[in-house]
Each structure stands twice: as C-alpha cells, then as structure tokens.
Amino acid sequence: MRKNLLQTGKDTPIERFYGVGAKRAEAFHKMGIDTAEDAVYRFPRAYEPRGNVKTTVTAEDGEVCSLILTVAGEAKNAMIRKGMTITKFTAFDCDGTCSLIFFNQPYIKDAARKGMTFRFFGKVKRERTGVSMTSPIMEACIGTAPLRDLVPIYPLTAGITQKFMGSVMREALNAVQSETDGINEFLPEDLRTRLGLCTLREALLLIHEPRVWEDTARAVRRLAFDELYLFALSMLLYGKSEKQSLSEIYRNWDDTPFLSALPYDLTGAQVRTVQAIASDMKSGILMNRLVVGDVGSGKTVCAAYAVYLAMINGKQAAMMAPTEILARQHYADLSEMFGRLGFRTGLLVGSMTPSAKKKVIAALAEKEIDFIIGTHALIEEAVVFADLGLAVIDEQHRFGAAQRSSLAKKSRETHILTMSATPIPRTLAMVLYCDTDVSVIDEMPPGRQKVDTFLVNESYRSRLNAFIRKNVEAGGQVYIVCPAVEEEEKLVCENGETVTENEAVPLGGREEEKPRLKAAVDFAKQLSEEVFPEYSCAFVHGKLNGKEKDRIMNDFASGKISILVSTTVIEVGVNVPRATLMIVENAETFGLSALHQLRGRVGRGTRKSYCVLVSDSKTQKAKERMKILCESNDGFAIAQKDLEMRGPGDFLEQSGVKTRQSGEFDLGIASLEKDVKLLYTAFDEAKRTVAEDPTLSLEENQMLSKTLKAKLYKRQNVLV
Question: Where are the alpha helices (DSSP H) in 514-648?
Fold first, then answer.
C-alpha cells in the first residue's frame, strides 16, 4: 500500500516515499539524501541509450543497444544448479532471430508470451547462428505511450538499485514541483531571459526525465550556471577577508645580501613578484598573496625572498609542502643559502624519529630555528613557534582551507604566501582568486631546456618501447603516465548489469568519442614482467599510503628505479635530473595544462629530454589540442588555449577553488567541460547583482539570498 505523504513538497523526508523503510532510509542518508530536494539534486552519472535501436543484422558484436523483437515461442525455465534458474526463448525482427537468456528471473516466462513485442536493451553477442542477449532490460511495446529513449543511471550505494532510485526520483520530482511547497525559482526573470536559461523546475525535470540528449544539455547549462553564479556571489559577498593591520611594522628592507647570494639574476616576472611581496609586507597589513607560475619559472626563489624579509625583521618563517619528498627537496635547495646568510633552517617531516621531531619542535619554541620546512607535521598541535611571521604554502590546492589556516594560526599575525604550479591565465586567476592578491610569473629563466614533444598512436608501440630502452641504456629514466588506476568504472544499470561510462550517454551528450583508458595497474605489470623485465620498474598511484608513495618516489629520484608507471600523482616539484622521457597514455583525456605540467617532470638536467603523447583519438578537436602542445612550451599560452577549447573545468579542479576561505562550495556539474563564457558570464552577472543590491535585500533577490545562504550552510557547514 502506498504511503500517505503527510508532508509534501521539497522538504518531504525521504522516509515518506513509497518503499523506503528504515534500512533504505539509512542508505539514502549515507548518500546525503534526506529530503525530496536532496534527491532531485542527485544528478544522473549518465544515461542508458535505449533509443539506440538496431536490428538483428545491424547490431555489432559487443554493442550495447536495443532490439525490438517479437516473441517467437514459449519461454522455458530450467534449474541449472541449486539456487540458479535460467529462462530461455527466441524472438525475431524483420531481419532475423535473437536468443534471449535470463538468469534467476523465472517470472520472465509468464511475461514473455508468444506474439508479444518488446524492446530489449543490453549487450549483443553475435554468433554464427544469429545474435543473443543475456539478461537485457525488457520493456513491452504496448499502447500509445512511447518508451523512454534515455534512462538515467544514478550513483548508488548498497541497498539501493537503479530501478528503485528511479521510482523514488519520480516521486521526488512530483514533490518539488508543488506550487505551494516546491522548489522555487531564485534567478531573477530578467537574468534568465537575458541568458536564455530554462526555469529551475524545467531543468530538474529535463535532467532526470530527458526525451532527447539536447534536453540534458539545456538542463546542464542552467544547473551549471546556478552553481557558478552562486559560487561567484559567495566569493564577492563572503570571500573577501577583512584586511588585518599589524601591531608591529617591519622596519628592515635591505634585500641586497639575499639578491647577492643568488647565482643568477631574477627575471622580469620574478622582480615584479618580489616587489609586490615587499610592498605587501611593508604596508602594515597582513599579506595574503598567491604566486602562480609555470613549472621551472622560479616561484620558490620568490618565496625565499619573502622568508628572508621576515627573518631580517626578527620573525620566524615556515614553508609547508604536500609531500615529504618535496619538503626535503626545498630543504636541500634553501638551507645552505640561508646558512651562508646567517640563518638557521630546520626540517620537520612525518618519517623523522620521535626524538628528532621533539628536538626540532623544542628548537622552534626557543627560536633556535629561524626557518622551518616541513609537511603536515607543521600543523600538529605540539608545534609551537616563538614568533612566526610568515607561512608559505607550496602547491596550495593540495591542502584544505582548514589545513592552510592552521599553519597561519600558529601566530597572531602571520603573512601568508601560497604557491601554485598551475599556469592559469591571468584573467581566470583574477576571477577564481578574488579573495587573494595574485602574482603571475609568466616568464621562464634563460637557459631552460626545451622538451621536444611528439604525438603518436598505438601503431608506434614497438618503436616507443625501443625508444624507452634507448633512454634507459643511455642512463636516463622514464615516466609513463596512465589516466586510470584500473579498468574503466562500471555503472550499474536498472537490470543489475554493468556498462562502462563509454557505453552510456553522458550528461549533455557526448561531443567526441571516449576511448578505452589504459589502466596503470595492468600496464605496469605488463611492462615489468613482459616488456622490460631487465629493468627496475615501479608503479605509484593515489591509493598508496603516503609512506609507500614517498619510498617509491625517493627510489626513482635516487636512480634505483628506471621506469615509473604512474597516475597523475607524481609531484609537480619533484626534481629528477636523470629523467629524460615522459610518456602519457590516452593523452587526449588530459587538459593541455595538465599535460604541460606532466612534461615539466623531465628536462630538469643536462640531458636532452622528450615527451611522447600517445593517443588513438580520431577527432579533429583532439588532434588540434595535441598539436598545440607539440608546438609550444609556453605554459600560459597553452593554458589560454586550453581554456578556450575545453573551458574552466580542469582549472577549477587544479586550482583548488573548492577550498576557499569560506569553505567548500559544490561545483558538481560545473566541473564538467564547459564553455569558458559560462564562468565569466556567471561572474559578470554576480558583479551586476552585487552592484545593484550589495545585501541582496531587494524584493526580487529575496529568494536568491535565501538560496545562497542555504547552500552555504548546508554544503559547507558555514553559517553566513
């Protein structure tokens, strides 16, 4: 018996929905679904293309598609072993016959009556005698109601099936469409009209129940704009920190000893950056500056300049790196120089013995260390500074907002300097980091080695392996990067069968083919056991624990490992001078900026270095993108092209916009590849809104204000 919904509307508890008992309610809660509104914002991952109808002749072997067939004879059940039944029958279309097989679904026998026509969706197996399908989704072609061409595939958890999720979603959609208690439109009508956006209710309906894939494109554009617009408003209204005045003004600005200690002259971009840093630290206001620069552009020396200014004014400085290997590298690069200038540098990392850590921590508290370099160990409660004046965060997007602020809070007045190796275009940087002062180092030091880059396809595999062998024999080392740790993730369909994301239709439709990804796990095993058994090969990925990953990276850096197969977890700043060859598999799946960063892992020594992009993509767009990388080594020019061609999705992720000072802001749909204009449009509209109504108090912005505060509170646990 269907439950009586005592409460209807967007706030209807999930427990009120038909079939949701205590266990299922707990499963929904684990997914973050507590109400009807939560449910409709649980967007599909992809769609089953049931409208992709083929015939028994045109369907290819292994193809996921639909066949419209008429049952030819009586279906029969058989027990093949204890607890396992099989149902078989034959059906036909105008071109031929198909054998249908179902496991543990004995009720199919009564449903599949002779002469009835069904649409069967699943994977086709082609045999000499015809075709067959195993456990397809079976829908009767009865009446005038059309069958759905696109059926959502949702992310699930244990205890919830696709079929049940679909039924709950239909009830939730009805609930949120309520005129009295449903989801209300929060975008001003003139804004929607100006941008050609559909209504919120229409977008939610289209994304869950699309008729054609263009429906999902309309829905995604509206919902993505919502996310970006609310994000922009949150940054403009709540992201800017109050400038904090210093109680103690720095007096010493003699940087001559530091600049004289450098074995080279600063580039123009570095000079502009250190001047901005000095201006910040002279202002009497706490610095909050981000230094963005390409791999090898010289960000670290700019950070060292800030460290020097803090120390000559009697303050301590700290630099926090995301991994131990990077922290040790910074220590090796900076401790000797600062020692010559009369300052004491220390190191604090997780692998140190308890007694060694205790000694360093005591020295910090007694101000026997002027500059400390470390990892997350720096923000442990036991670490106390005598007088911390500057916190430097390397690879800022690798740390959460709480971790970054924890280091700064080790002192009442701490300047903050963060660094990022993502060569983000200046215009986008100013948008994404509107709560931070930004310095862009867009000039490379002279003499930086150019890494020759080539694009090849799978037919070059034997020659590529020979090139790997040639580099290793000459004393070089090789990186091989794969986009996936394991085989493609499987999506569970309504009938319990699985498909890969490549076999489903993504939100908004697919603009180009999605290739089969080379899995690093299997590839690493193949290389070490079959292709290069004579060399030392290793495999590193994000699922390894920190100590194991650091051990492998240290072994590679020291030359014990010749070939390193990896996902993109290999560190931006790791210096391996003997690494001469970078190979990127499925290169078309990476953004150009990500590929450029990977390329920056080689060419750090005196040996000639190369980057080989492996791609079987046939699309012109992918070829154009790869060509840009082959022809240019300018990270910022490449980033600008990447932004124009792929949109801001990669930058949003790489640049850490999910970890702003106000907490994490959900950019789920907007993290897909989008037209960059949507991001700029969202910020332009947000600026217009704030200019016209700084407090969002006008009547037409009441719902907008309420929605923004609800999103920030619920998704960030930040009450504004």
Answer: 520-526, 546-557, 592-599, 620-631, 635-646
SS3 call for 490? strand
* 606, burial (CB in 10 Å: exposed 0-12, middle 13-18, buried 19+): exposed
Angle of CA points 179, 184, 189, to nearest 5°: 115
Each residue's pLDDT tens digit, 440-451: 888 877 767 789
Taking the C-alpha atoms of 141, 98, 77 and 75 in order, what is their torsion angle to the nearest 10 degrees?
A: 50
A 10 A CB-CB count for 58 gives 12
Query: What number of other Cβ atoms are within 10 A of residue 259's Cβ?
Result: 14
What is the end-to-end Cα distance of the chain in Å, rounded?
43
660-703: pLDDT as tens digits? 333 344 566 775 345 566 877 888 898 899 889 988 999 889 99
Segments of the chain with pLDDT less than 50: 1, 6, 486-488, 572, 656-665, 672-673, 715-720
What residues contact 348, with CB distance under 8 A and at least 6 apart?
357, 360, 361, 372, 373, 374, 375, 377, 378, 383
Q: Answer positive or negative: Cα dihedral of 686, 691, 693, 696.
A: positive
| 422: CB partners within 8 A, 6+ apart | 292, 397, 593, 597, 639, 651, 654, 655
